[in-house]
Amino acid sequence: MSQKVSVQFGAFHEARRRFEAANSKRSPLHPGLSYTQYYLSGAFAGVANSVISGPIEHVRIRLQTQPHGAARLYSGPIDCIRKLSAHEGVLKGLYRGELVTILREAQAYGVWFLTFEYLMNADAARNRIRREEISTVKVATYGGLAGEALWLASYPFDVVKSKMQSDGFGSNMRYRGMRDCFTQTYAREGLRGFWKGIGPTLLRAMPVSAGTFAVVELTMRAIN
Prior knowledge:
It is a single chain. The protein is an all-alpha fold. The protein is 77% helix and 0% strand.
């Protein structure tokens, strides 16, 4: 978890700095990011994060959905990585579902960072205060709301990713790819099929996202 957060915020702030540098050349008095640029910075963070999250989540799903007892397929994470890679190679085996993972992460973290920055900037402008003066409670609240927005914007991609990463191999494979998975899910379950389990996900997302942004924001204030 800590590695993922480090990648997310590291990539976001790297993209943010590059946008600020480009903006300062065009308009030295107003180097701040537009909200489109906030989204793109978050999307870049998501794409960078997908390199890690794709295989990690694939292994987690395989371990959670495998049979118990004597029918177990994998003895642990390392055994799972080895067997997944042996099926169709690293890219098609371990990294199955990576395209939809990239789309999910780009959309999710684009919206995540955009929502948080919008709420923080709006609060500072409305109350005529500096960002650093926004209370910790508000920072956590805005972080929690950003977490809700993240999942509402990306959940259908996550459903398809999970289906692809729990699918069989060879003759037991149900989905030929991302597009086929979207098509079959809609044909069998309609739009509801893309939103199964959204309730518990939203309940979990708010406190996790609130804590993440509160810790990062307060840490950056302390460093600065």
